[in-house]
Write a structure and sequence with these properties.
This protein is α/β, with parallel strands linked by helices and about 210 residues long. Helix content is about 25%, strand content about 30%. It contains 5 helices and 9 strands, in the order E-E-E-H-E-E-H-H-H-E-H-E-E-E. The protein has helices at about 45-55, 85-95, 100-110, 125-140, 155-170; strands spanning about 5-15, 20-30, 35-40, 60-65, 70-75, 145-150, 175-180, 190-195, 200-205. The strands form 2 sheets. A 6-stranded mixed sheet has the order 5-6-7-3-8-9, with helices on both faces. Strands 2-1-4 form a 3-stranded antiparallel sheet, with helices on one face. Strand 8 and strand 9 form a beta hairpin. Helix 3 runs antiparallel to helix 4 (about 125-140). The chain is globular and about 45 Å long. The N and C termini lie far apart (about 40 Å).
């Protein structure tokens, strides 16, 4: 595969719910070593777009191609209140077919919640749960990362640490797509797209791209 070929390609994707169009020909290329953002108001179809990209939801038409292993951090985490952090890591270790937990334990240290390794999820704050949600998405070191509101519940220090992790992944040649209804620090991104009217439109990088979505 040539170096500049997209590792993730979406072409002319359409999706409607009960005849209500949500995506109307959305297209996107994501190349290796790129940190890209998608912004849009709540209800604009961002989560629908991500679910189609990961194969969780079928589009009505169009196509999606991915070359490489995916990592997905959904807005609604697939986590169990009664399990400890460590039990979640071991469950996903088996699911991903990993030989060990080296990468997961490194992420626990980076995101500063290793002391909660033996705590049950139901006892943790929303921000700490989100750290686990992010760790689960990254622990198999995928080539393509799709992150839906990945820093929700983070304080300012952890928000900055998230961007450090994202930039480090980009610098190692990973492709990172961050989706949010609010976008700050867009100068950190290589490209920004707004999902509006069911299509993706490129926006200038480094311009405040916040929306008024509630």
């Amino acid at each position: 595969m040539p170096e500049n070929d997209p590792v993730l390609r979406m072409r002319d994707v359409h999706k409607s719910y009960r005849r209500r169009p949500v995506l109307r020909g959305a297209s996107l290329d994501l190349s290796a070593g790129r940190l890209v953002g998608i912004v849009g108001e709540n209800g604009s179809g961002k989560s629908t777009l991500l679910r189609i990209l990961v194969g969780e939801l079928a589009s009505d038409s169009g196509r999606v191609e991915c070359r490489g292993q995916l990592g997905y951090c959904p807005q609604n985490a697939v986590l169990h209140q009664a399990f400890t952090v460590d039990q979640h890591l071991r469950y996903f270790q088996v699911a991903y077919g990993l030989a060990g937990l080296d990468r997961a334990l490194e992420l626990l240290e980076t995101l500063r919640f290793s002391r909660y390794r033996h705590a049950r999820l139901g006892t943790l704050s929303g921000g700490t749960r989100q750290k686990l949600n992010l760790t689960v998405a990254l622990m198999h070191d995928p080539q393509v990362l799709l992150l839906d509101e990945p820093y929700q519940g983070f304080d300012w220090e952890m928000y900055l640490r998230f961007w450090e992790v994202a930039e480090e992944l980009r610098d190692r040649g990973r492709s990172v797509l961050v989706v949010s209804h609010l976008a700050y620090d867009t100068e950190r991104l290589d490209a920004v797209y707004r999902l509006d009217g069911g299509t993706l439109k490129a926006e200038p990088v480094g311009v405040d791209a916040r929306t008024g979505g509630a």
